[in-house]
Design goal:
Length: 298
Amino acid sequence: MGAFDLPSYLNARRVVVDEALDRLLPPDTATPPSLHRAMRYSVQAGGKRLRPILVIAGAESVGGTAEQVMETACAMEMIHTYSLIHDDLPAMDNDDYRRGMLTNHKVFGEAIAILAGDALLTLAFKLIALNGARAGDATLVSTLVTEVAEAAGTDGMVGGQVVDIESEGKAVSAETLDYIHTHKTAALIRASLCAGAVIAGGTHRQLDAMKKCGEALGLAFQIVDDILDVEGSTEQLGKTAGKDAQQQKATYPAYHGLEVSRAKARALIDEAKAALAPLGERAVPIRALADFIFERRS
Ligand code: GRG
């Protein structure tokens, strides 16, 4: 077998995800148009589409297809986009740029930005429920909704965001730093990988492997994000670089230094790849994605 062509794999899946997002988002002419324009603006502003691609890769690694999990793939991108819109608000990180464009509240105002985020989160759960029902029975729907709700809620992204905000300007412990990163970022990445495998009928052993992989991958992703905030440019990142230090955020480079942070991210990527052993050759794309997460520059 030749070397795996990750850029082609990513491009092909990005295209189908973008087509599906366009189909599943309410048209911007539907009432109220301001809300729908705001939802579309941030979702369609770009982004790597990492979470939906992980849903698809999770499904494919247990023998499923992209088509089988497409609503859930789009739902994870909607949840992610809602979190970015809310994170950029003046009450949180107060950012002007995201995905290389003005932030949602800068274009539509704060009230619509909050509501666009709320509407994306709500639509996501409708899509997940519909996808689960299309793929299986009530147990599958319940497993799927529970998994994603936990990853997005108080024991996941929202919980991590609260501790992140409350830690600004304070000296936090290594344990608190890990809590922030695993909850704020890794939970949704892990849930994306697992959701695809759940819908595609993965076995307990396969799901366990995916969970371990997703956890390590998600933490590595946030450590690399911290490193890029120090080393990258605003142009390259599409968002304001250097904000973490400015806001005295709890980050890996601030706590451990750049070199240790890089080594930790590399070790986590290797751990994520090793966890995929039970999935064999079908997990080649996820292994390549893991390396991409370490090497990415934006
Ligand atoms: C507001 C509930 C709530 C949560 C916010 C996701 C988040 C939590 C905040 C956004 C800021 C941040 C540093 C989040 C960590 C996750 C992260 C690195 C997001 C950026 O994800 P990418 O790089 O973005 O996948 P694209 O634009 O490529 O999709």
